[in-house]
Structure formats: structure tokens, C-alpha cells
Amino acid sequence: MLNSVNSEAKIAEFLLKIKAIKLQPENPFQWASGWNSPIYCDNRKTLSYPEIRTYIRDCFSNEITKNYSKPDIIAGVATGGIALGALVAQELELPFCYVRAQAKSHGLNNSIEGAIEAGQNVVVIEDLISSGKSSLNAVADLRKAGLNVVGMGAIFSYGFNIADDNFKNANCELFTLTNYSTLLDIALASNYISSDAITPLEEWRSSPSTWKK
Predict the structure, then answer these.
(1) Count of domains in the chain?
(2) Hey, which of 23, 82, 194, 195 has its CA 20 to 30 A from 137?
């Protein structure tokens, strides 16, 4: 069985190695929300590396089996959670569906694609948690369709307080394979960043909406 502490560090190392996550406190990125950010995350890059995507699939499968036994179905959140969710569903030999960001504007106007049944227990797969808003919209759609969302898993979370509050208010359990604190530890230990960079990186997480404004 995979060791969750070791796997957190290993996944963080993978994400830095393939530049799925970039840290640039001296030259911040700008998110679509308008926030300035010292970090950019694109976990979809993990799909291009067979060893890494397999390891992530196995970590998800292990956590799901440990915490939820065997759910009835796995759901992916569009777009980053679709391929990951399908890999996990295949490994666990479970059905799969995915949740659109918006319902189709034609045909059946589906917000959920795949064969689902009311009453099914579902674990939702996401690639990244920031505020949690879009992920929880998917949870709401699944619940509206009559499914029982027993939990959500994501590769990475920034660890924002607002995300913790949003998941708590939505009564949705969340687990992540790695997180911002672990990432900073690995980045510092591997000399990806200097000790001088830690302070602005920690300040950003404390107040991302106002950082460097």
C-alpha cells in the first residue's frame, strides 16, 4: 500500500520536475480572476508522462478504497478531472461520468455526461482546488441528479481558507494527494527556490486577493 506522507512529497516533486507547477514570486503570474500569483499550476501536464499519471492514478485509487470502500461510480470535473477520473474508474473497475462546466445549450441540455442512476454513491475527481467554487458547482449538479457525493479528491490544493470554508458549507469531504505546504518544502529542499522566496510565497497564500496590489 502507498504511504500517503511519502506520496505527497513524491507527487509535489513530480509536479515541479515537469513544470506542471511553476513558482515565480519575483515575476508573478496573473490569474483570470485578476489575482497576482507567484504560482502557476497546470496538472493536465501529468497526463503526458505515463509513470506520473500511473502513480497519481494509483494514489487516487488507494485513497478512495481506504476512505470510501467501493463507490458506485467515479465522476470527473471538466476539464482537468475527466482523463484522471477515467483512469481511476478503469483501475477500480467502476463506471465513469463527467460533469460539464455548463450544461449543453442544445440536444438534451446535459450537465452530466454518462450513464448515471439516482442513489448512486459517487467520488468526484478534480485536478486542482483553489477556491473550490467550480468543483462544488459540479457537486451540486451531481446532487441535483440524485447522486450521493461521498467525497472529492484532487491532485493539489493551494490550501486557501476560503476553500476550506466552501467545502465545509457544502458538506463535501475533500482529500488531496499533495498540497501547497508540501510543495514549498520540496521546492526549498531541492533548491528550486531559495529561502528568501518562502516569505512572499507564504504571504500570498494568506491573502491571495490582495497580494502585490
Answers:
(1) 1
(2) 23
* Confidence (pLDDT) at 1: 43
In a domain, 143, yes or no: yes
Residue type, 132: G
Residues of the domain holding 55: 4-206
Residue 211 located in a structural domain? no
* The model scores a pTM over 0.70: yes
Tell me the average pLDDT across 1-11: 78
Q: 113-158: per-residue pLDDT in tens? A: 999 999 999 999 999 999 999 999 999 999 999 999 999 999 999 9
The β-bridge relationship of strands 73-77 and 96-99 is: parallel
Strands 39-41 and 21-23: antiparallel
